[in-house]
Amino acid sequence: MQHVLVTGGAGFIGSNFIHYLLKAEPEVRVYTLDALTYAGHRQNLEHLPDDSRHTFIHGSINNRQLVDNLLRKYTIDTIIHFAAETHVDRSISGPASFIETNVVGTFTLLEAARQAWLEEKIVAQPRFHHISTDEVFGTLALDDPPFCETTPYAPNSPYAASKASSDHLVRAYYKTYGLPVTITNCSNNYGPRQFPEKLIPLMIFNALQGKPLPIYGDGQQVRDWLYVEDHCTAIHAVLQKGRLSETYLVGGRNQPPNVELVRLICAILDEHFPDSPHYPHADLIQFVADRPGHDRRYDVSTTKMEDELGWQPQYNLDQGLHNTVAWYLKNSNWITAVTGGESFANWINENYTQRGAETQ
Question: Annotated catalytic sites, by residue?
Answer without folding.
Answer: 134-135, 159
